[in-house]
UniProtKB/TrEMBL annotation, chain A:
Keywords: Coated pit, Endocytosis, Membrane, Protein transport, Transport. Pfam families: Adaptin_N, Alpha_adaptin_C, Alpha_adaptinC2. It is a peripheral membrane protein. Belongs to the adaptor complexes large subunit family. Residues 724-833 form the Clathrin adaptor alpha/beta/gamma-adaptin appendage Ig-like subdomain domain. Adaptor protein complex 2 (AP-2) is a heterotetramer composed of two large adaptins (alpha-type and beta-type subunits), a medium adaptin (mu-type subunit) and a small adaptin (sigma-type subunit). Residues 961-982 are annotated as: Disordered. The lineage of its organism: Eukaryota, Viridiplantae, Streptophyta, Embryophyta, Tracheophyta. Subunit of the adaptor protein complex 2 (AP-2). Adaptor protein complexes function in protein transport via transport vesicles in different membrane traffic pathways. Adaptor protein complexes are vesicle coat components and appear to be involved in cargo selection and vesicle formation. AP-2 is involved in clathrin-dependent endocytosis in which cargo proteins are incorporated into vesicles surrounded by clathrin (clathrin-coated vesicles, CCVs) which are destined for fusion with the early endosome. SMART domains: Alpha_adaptinC2. This is AP-2 complex subunit alpha. Residues 961-976 have a biased composition (Pro residues). It comes from Rehmannia glutinosa. Its main location: membrane.
From TrEMBL, chain B:
Residues 1-144 form the AP complex mu/sigma subunit domain. Coiled coil: none annotated. It is found in: Endomembrane system. Its main location: membrane. This is AP complex subunit sigma. It comes from the Eukaryota. Keywords: Membrane, Protein transport, Transport. PANTHER family: ADAPTOR COMPLEXES SMALL SUBUNIT FAMILY. Belongs to the adaptor complexes small subunit family.
Length: 991, 161
């Protein structure tokens, strides 16, 4: 048999497979009557095979049945294998409960041990329900051997951890205190673990255990009455010391005299020491003791033993929270910087964390320069974190702005791949907002462009900065517009499509700054524009076309392409990001109890300010780059407050086919591309007020009389109206009632959409049991991030929601939202404005493109025609506006008849990809309530859905849905009799 | 608590896998593989943060003894150095039970290894820290086994030495 086992274990996997099936059949054919011995043998083998990674799906029954075998070896196999193979919810476990219980209350101690081990390792609910009282009895029984009792303690602990509601621990504090008087160290260690769990749950009830803990520590520290087998390398049971110190950390701060010791020769004592340090921190001891601790840690981070270095750095990072010792920690800066070069990446990470944490105005320059230097040698795994941290520190603590620009440019130069867009957006903001900085930044950008191979991000920054400010350099060497243009243009072939739009803007700006116009340069640039006018990328194409057309206009160019206005101040998205992550690294273990529990990945924005906002510019404001709207903006758009209207209001009716996604890039480049003069207004003044804007708005919101709303919660404003408004624009309020305001903000990219749902609590009391879910129609894939259970008073929570459009359909997604305020439960179902037209992208077609397309799509189902009646009467210009706002681009001039409209758009979904849609609408000037509509696209469903969608939008729906009943008879004669013939041919004939 | 104990050899073959929170078998193997892949050089610290595998604040401590690679996985309610020492206790106990333990001992007596581990860790908590106590308990169990079934002791190589 040994050979059999041997081959089974050492030959190749195939061998195991061949053994596997006979084993399986043997085990399963129970009728043949396996002896207990055979059963035992096979069950052990099963466990081994399971461990090697094969899914053993047979024989579970045998393993469980062995538990009830009378003899010890078989019982043991049963217990051990069951505890490895089955999880707590497995049905077979129920079969064993009775046997397990009999073993526990039986007299046989070895059986008791086996049963306790099983229960302790699995810890299921049913076990807890039926066995917890028995286990408790065993633990405090004086007749049991320590061997059994220590197992009972841990078994109980496991049951309590898994099912705290089932295990009754009322009145256990006295028993725990008794247990802590125990002389046996095994029982004591186990009981201490149990105590830690109980105390962490509710420390008030266990005050009486506190003196006992201190006594145990004293006993250990003085090495009194410690049996030699529990002395580990000369230290009296370090585990018990560690556990006891842990337990003490859960009690609120009290005077605790004897927790510090200064013996350290090996690991064990270090473990004790680190726990002691943690306790000292927890107790917030006096400064002298703290500085002793730091001195000790300083020694640790310099030792050769890597484990101690690691923990030393980690604990020093924790120490940073104690303000008094920060200066002392700074003395170790040199040593910490050396740790950045440690061979161990874990230690390097700790060192980076620590450096980041200890940085302030006084040492920022040193630390950031050190980080930059380290960046070129750092391993790739760390570079992203490193560059992000360097960027944040540079921004937070910059002694002067030119230094900041230097740092960021160096950063991009050295680790361009790891510099996120946020970082360079930020530098552009700084430069734009500080006039003194502009010539310097332009000069620097010019210098970097001279380098032979530069990173694409560097191309972006330099191109942008030079586009704006290169004229400030005009007198310098090699800085004529022509030279700058040619050096930037050199980079064009190497960059990706995301950079080309920036370069095009730069060219347009250079052109504008060249006064008087340089003919040669002008022609060069125009040639580039016209080359890109047929580019496949819509963004590039649009820019090329617009710039080309604009630059033809001559003097008007000056106004439109004027220098970018200053940005409104907003908190750096980087710092925001960092603040979010800081919470993770800051403190653990006992302190976690005090931290608020947030089981949500949603971003909670409250009025808290960053503690060390040394730069006045970083006070507050917008949050994250892609979701730059916050309550202020939404409210401003709704016209509730007026003061900061000038700051953020965008035209709610987009007349131009602008891409409405307001990310920062758009923000940087948007006004230049589209808005023109409206963006040049004075924008710096409102910033002063931004410090209390949020507060004000919150007040304004709170004015809504809470008391008057007695029982039912009435929404403020019409939900339907809000929904319809949001169908046409991408941000605004979706729902509002006296307690909550739900705003949304959307961005669309082809068939992907990204919503951010803002849940704003308007009250001074928290909203609880907040739940939100999306009921998506079949054609949308939605993914809503977790919504926090409670929304703190006056706080706003942001929940991202991803939407993917699978195929054309007009069905709507519904947001099912509920919350509780006081005792009132509010549940609302809101239609989400992820409507059909959000997945449209307007596109202009020329006559040459339109007619072949129109003809090639002949007849149903690809081309559908319908006479629509009961249309809301409106002049043709208004109809064109409506179509444009639905992202159906009206192409004027294609149809010579002024009463007809031709529109085109691209529809995006996963199944259809980008699909061109063409629409023709013929109106009757005599009767505006009817029109004839022809829709064509390459997909029958799409054609139908689009037709129905437009119909929905133009038909007059209100009160009696089809009120103009007498209309049809009147309408019929006016509709032209040729309506049946192909309108394509008709149109061609007209032309 | 301690989330799991893994012993594997230097080729990444698991020799003992015990999780204190149920993991489906595929997940177990994936964990063993990724832990094997993240083995590190001799002269660096023994602690690795493994948030990506087990969730936040979980770390593992590992130590190599000859061809065997011991791994303890635990969360922040345990002290790192204490875990390292517990591993030492575990190895010492194995050493006492098998007199100079080697990989083959663990393979052929993996039942006994399970028994020993059950005497040291229970349900993810430290049960016993004195190796002599553990040895005592294990010997008692072995005695029970040989009394309980006479056939088993006649099978060579199955029972501990």
């Amino acid at each position: 048999m040994k050979r059999q086992v041997f081959t089974c274990r050492y030959k190749e996997l195939g061998n195991i497979r061949t053994r596997f099936s006979p084993l399986k059949s043997r085990v399963q054919s129970r009728e043949e009557g396996l002896t207990h011995y055979e059963k035992k043998k096979y069950v052990w083998k099963m466990l081994y095979i399971y461990m090697l990674g094969y899914d053993v799906d047979f024989g579970h029954m045998e393993a469980v049945s062995l538990i009830s075998a009378p003899k010890y070896p078989e019982k043991q196999v049963g217990y051990i294998v069951t505890s490895c193979l089955l999880n707590e919810n497995h049905d077979f476990l129920r079969l064993a409960i009775n046997t397990v219980r009999n073993d526990i209350i039986g007299r046989n101690e070895t059986f008791q041990c086996l049963a306790l081990t099983l229960v302790g390792n699995i810890g299921g609910r049913e076990f807890a329900e039926s066995l917890a009282p028995d286990v408790q009895k065993l633990l405090i029984s004086s007749s049991c051997r320590p061997l059994v009792r220590k197992k009972a303690a841990l078994c109980l602990l496991r049951l309590f951890r898994k099912n705290p509601d089932v295990v009754n621990i009322d009145g256990w504090s006295d028993r725990m205190a008794q247990l802590l008087d125990e002389r046996d160290f095994g029982v004591l260690t186990s009981s201490m673990s149990l105590l830690v769990a109980l105390v962490s749950n509710n420390h008030d009830a266990y005050w009486n255990c506190l003196p006992k803990c201190v006594k145990i520590l004293e006993r250990l520290a003085r090495n009194q009455d410690v049996p030699p087998e529990y002395t580990y390398y000369g230290i009296p049971s370090p585990w018990l010391q560690v556990k006891t110190l842990r337990a003490l950390q859960y009690f609120p701060t009290v005077e605790d005299p004897n927790t510090r010791r200064s013996l350290f020769e090996n690991n064990a004592s270090h473990a004790v020491l680190f726990e002691a340090l943690a306790l000292v921190m927890h107790l917030d001891a006096e400064k002298e003791m703290m500085s002793q601790c730091v001195a000790l840690l300083g020694k640790f981070i310099a030792v050769r033993e890597p484990n101690i270095r690691y923990l030393g750095l980690e604990n020093m990072t924790r120490m940073l929270m104690v303000t008094e010792v920060q200066d002392i920690i700074k003395r170790h800066q040199a040593q910490i910087i050396t740790s950045l070069k440690d061979p161990d990446i874990s230690i390097r990470r700790r060192a980076l964390d620590l450096l980041y944490g200890m940085c302030d105005v006084s040492n920022a320059k040193d630390i950031v320069e050190e980080l930059l230097q380290y960046l070129s040698t750092a391993d790739f795994a760390m570079r992203e974190e490193l560059s992000l941290k360097a960027a944040i520190l540079a921004e937070k603590f910059a002694p002067d702005l030119s230094w900041y620009v230097d740092v960021i440019l160096q950063l991009i130069d050295k680790a361009g791949d790891f510099v996120s867009d946020d970082i360079w957006f930020r530098v552009v903001q700084f430069v734009t907002n500080n006039e003194d900085l502009q010539p310097y930044a332009a000069l620097k950008a010019r210098e970097y462009l001279d380098k032979p191979a530069i990173h694409e991000t560097m191309v972006k920054v330099s191109a942008y900065i030079l586009g704006e400010y290169s004229h400030l350099l005009a007198r310098g060497p090699a800085c004529s517009p022509k030279e700058i243009f040619s050096i930037i243009h050199e980079k064009l072939p190497t960059v990706s499509t995301s950079t080309i739009p920036i370069l095009l803007s730069t060219y347009a700006k250079i052109l504008m700054h060249t006064q008087p116009p340089d003919q040669e340069l002008q022609h060069q640039i125009w040639a580039i524009f016209s080359k890109y006018e047929s580019c496949i990328d819509a963004e590039i194409q649009q820019r090329a076309v617009e710039y080309h057309a604009l630059s033809m206009k001559g003097a008007a160019l000056m106004d439109i392409l004027a220098e970018m206005p200053k940005f409104p101040e907003r908190q750096s998205s980087l710092i925001r990001k960092a603040e979010n992550t800081e919470a993770d690294t800051a403190e653990q273990s006992a302190a976690k109890l005090r931290a608020q529990q947030q089981a949500s990945n949603a971003l909670v924005v409250t009025d808290q300010r960053p503690a060390n906002g040394t730069l006045p510019v970083n006070q507050l404001g917008l949050v994250k780059v892609p979701i730059m709207s916050n309550a202020d903006q939404i409210i401003a758009e709704q016209g509730v407050t007026h003061e900061n209207g000038a700051l953020t209001v965008v035209d709610p009716q987009p007349q131009l086919p602008s891409t409405p996604s307001p990310d920062l890039l758009e923000d940087l480049l948007g006004p230049l591309a589209i808005e023109g003069p409206s963006g040049t207004g004075p924008q710096s003044e409102p910033r002063v007020a931004s410090g209390f804007e949020r507060g004000e708005n919150a007040d304004a919101l709170a004015i809504a009389p809470v008391e008057e709303q007695a029982n039912t919660v009435q929404p403020i404003g019409s939900i339907a109206e809000r929904f319809h408004a949001l169908c046409l624009k991408d941000s605004g309020v979706l729902y509002e009632d006296p307690y909550i305001q739900i705003g949304i903000k959307a961005e669309w990219r082809a068939h992907h959409g990204r919503y951010v749902i803002f849940l704003g609590n308007k009250n001074t009391a928290p909203l609880s049991s907040v739940q939100a879910s999306i009921l998506p129609p079949s054609h949308l894939n939605t993914e809503l991030s977790l919504v926090p259970e409670t929304i703190p008073p006056r706080a706003q929570v942001q929940c991202p929601l991803e939407v993917i459009n699978l195929r054309p359909s007009r069905d709507l997604a519904v947001l099912d939202f509920s919350y509780k305020f006081g005792t009132q439960v509010v549940n609302v179902k809101l239609r989400l404005p992820a409507v059909f037209n959000k997945f449209l992208q307007p596109i202009t077609v020329s006559a040459e493109e339109f007619f072949p397309q129109w003809r090639s799509l002949s007849g149903p189902p690809l081309k559908l025609q319908e006479v629509v009646r009961g249309v809301r009467p409106m002049p043709i210009a208004e109809l064109a506006n409506l179509l444009n706002s639905l992202r159906l681009m009206v192409c004027p001039g294609l149809d010579p008849n002024a009463n007809n409209l031709i529109a085109s758009t691209t529809f995006y979904s996963e199944s259809t990809r980008a699909m061109l849609c063409l629409i023709r609408i013929e109106t009757d000037p005599a009767d505006r309530t009817q029109l004839r509509m022809t829709v064509a696209s390459g997909d029958p469903t799409l054609t139908f859905e689009l037709k129905e969608f437009i119909k929905e939008q133009i038909v007059y729906i209100p009160v009696p849905p089809q009120s103009p009943a007498p209309m049809p008879p009147q309408a019929r004669p006016t509709s032209p009799p040729t309506a049946i013939s192909d309108p394509g041919a008709l149109l061609a004939g007209l032309l | 608590m301690i989330r799991g104990v893994i012993i594997m050899n230097d080729q990444g073959k698991p020799r003992l896998v015990k999780f204190y929170e149920f993991q489906p078998v595929e997940k177990q193997q994936e964990l063993v593989r990724s832990i094997y892949r993240s083995r590190r050089a001799e002269n660096v610290s023994n602690f690795v943060k493994v948030d990506s595998l087990f969730g936040p604040d979980v770390r593992l401590v590992y130590k190599t003894f000859a061809t065997l690679y011991f791994v303890f996985i635990f969360d922040n309610s345990e002290n790192e150095l204490a875990m390292l020492d517990l591993m030492q206790v575990f190895v010492e106990t194995l050493d006492k039970c098998f007199s100079n333990v080697c990989e083959l001992d663990v393979v052929f007596n993996f039942k006994k290894v399970h028994t020993i581990l059950d005497e040291i860790i229970l349900g993810g908590q430290v049960l016993e820290t004195s190796s002599s106590e553990v040895v005592k308990a294990v010997e008692e169990i072995s005695k029970m086994e040989s009394n309980g079934n006479s056939i088993i002791s006649s099978i060579p190589g199955w029972q501990g030495r």
